[in-house]
Amino acid sequence: MLRKATLVLVFLCVYVLKSAHGQEHCQSTPQELSIDELQARVDSLQSELIALKRSDTGTDDSPAMRKAEERLLSASEQLECRKESATLNPKGILTTATFVQIPLLYVTDRQRKTGKRGVYDYTTEANTALEFGKVNAVINEIGSIRTGLIGGTTRVPAPGSLGEAQVRQAQLLSEQAFMKMLTTPRSNHEPFRILLFVHGFNVEFYEAALSTARLATSMQIPLVPVFYSWPSEGKVLGYWHDEDEIPAAVVRFQPFLEQLLSMPNSEVIIVCHSMGARIVARALGELARKDAKLQSLKNVVFAAADINVEELNAEWPYLRQVPSVQWASYESSGDFALRLSTYIHRFRRVGESDGSVYVQEGMNTIDASSTTSLMRTFGHSYIVSSPSLAADIGDWVAQDLPPAKRGLQREKQGKDVYWKFP
To answer: H-helix or E-strand containing 111?
Structure first.
C-alpha cells in the first residue's frame, strides 16, 4: 500500500504534459542544481512523505499532507523541466529545425486579457460564454509537412523562443463569421473535413494551439483545424481545479458542439486527449439522449483518455445511437500518468492498457504502446508527439481503411479483438 501511495503522490508531477513547447513553465527551475541533485531531492521528499503517511497526523486530507504533496510535485516538475531543457540549446530552439506557420480556428470559454498595443491572450479563468477566433501557430517541422493540405500554411523563420511566442495574431470572430468559415466549400471538391481537438489537464491556451497544429499537420490530409480550449489552470497544482472545471465546461461547450455537428456538407473528426475525453463523452452522450441531429460527425478518437471506465461504459449505449460514426480508442501500457491516475481515483482509466486493454463493441481499440516514450511527458502525449500515430488516424479518416489495412497487428483478449502498432 505504501508503494501505491507513493505512486499516487507522484501522479500530478508526471501528468504535467509540457511537451517541447512548454519551456516557459520551467523558468523557476534552480539553475545551480544538476539533474542528479534534483533527482536526489525528489527521492528525499518521497521518503518524507512516506514517513508522514506512517504517522498519526498523515491523513489524506490533512494540511500537512497537502503541503508535503505540493513540495514533491514542485520538485518533480523542476526535475522534468531540467531533463527537457537538456535537449534544447540555450535559446530554447532546436538548432536544426525549420518552422511552419499553421492557421487555426478556436473556440474558448477562457477569459480574455488585452496587453500592449491591443494584443490579447486568454487567461486560466473561466468565461460565462464562448468566444470564437483564429490564430497562427508556429511549429518545428518534423519529417515533411505538406503545406497545401491546410490552407494558409507557410514556412517561416524560427521564433525568438519556444512557448507563447509560437502563437501569433489572435483575432476575434463573431460566431456567425466563425461558422461561415466552416461552411465555405473547397474548390477541389474534396470533403470539407474539420478536425476538432479538445485538450486535457494542465494546458494553457497557447499550448492547446500548438498541439492542434502538430496533430493536424501529422495527419497528412486536407482539413480545417479547430480547437476548443477550456479553462484549465495550466499548472501542476491545478489538477483539482481542472477536475472541478470539467462539468461547467461541458455545459458551455455542448451547444456549440451541437451546432457544429448539425452542419451539412462537412465531416467532423473529434480527437479528445486525456481529461478532454470527459468533456467530449459527456457532451455527446447528452446530445444523443436528446436525439440531436449530428449528421456531420464521422469519427471520434479517444487518445490516452483519462476517463473512468465505468463512466464511459455508462455513456456508450447512448453514444452508439449516433448514426454513421466510427469510434477509436488509442491506449498504452507505457502511459505512466494514466497508471497513476488509476491509483488516485481507484477506477481504471480508459486509455491505460497496462495488463489489459479497454474494449467496447463498435469501437476500434488500438494499443499504441510502441509509439510512446517515458522520456517525453511520461508516455502520455503520444497523440501529438508521434507522427506515425497521427498518420494512422489520417489514413483511417481519409481512406476509411480498417486497422488491418493500415498495418496494425490483430490481437485477442479473450473473445475480444483489438489492434496494435508493431
So the answer is: strand 99-114
- Size of the chain, expressed as the number of residues it contains: 422
- Domain's final residue, options 85, 109, 128: 85
- 211 Cβ partners below 8 Å, 6+ apart? 19, 197, 199, 203, 227, 273, 381, 384
Residue type, 181: M
**Calpha distance 9→142 (Å, rounded):** 35
What is the helix (H) or strand (E) element at residue 75, kind and residue range? Answer: helix 63-85
Comparing C-alpha atoms, which of 287, 282, 230, 290 is closest to residue 260? 287
Q: Does the pLDDT of residue 71 top 80, yes or no? A: no
Q: Are residues 142 and 67 both part of a single domain? A: no
Instruction: Give the DSSP letter of residue 142.
Output: -
Q: What is the dihedral of CA 229, 279, 268, 156, to 10 degrees?
A: 20
Residue found by looking up cell 517525453 in the block = 376
pLDDT tens track for 302-314? 998 888 889 999 9
Sort 187 into a burial class: Cβ within 10 Å, 0-12 / 13-18 / 19+. exposed
Give the structural domain span for 190. 99-420
- pLDDT given at position 73: 63
Domain count, the chain: 2
Together in a domain, 72 and 219? no
| Residue 92 Ramachandran class (φ > 0 left, ψ -120 to 50 alpha, else beta) | left
The CA distances from residue 41 to 3, 200, 414, in Å, are 18, 28, 44
> In this structure, are 33 and 136 located in the same domain?
no
With a CB cutoff of 8 Å and minimum separation 6, the contacts of 119 are 170
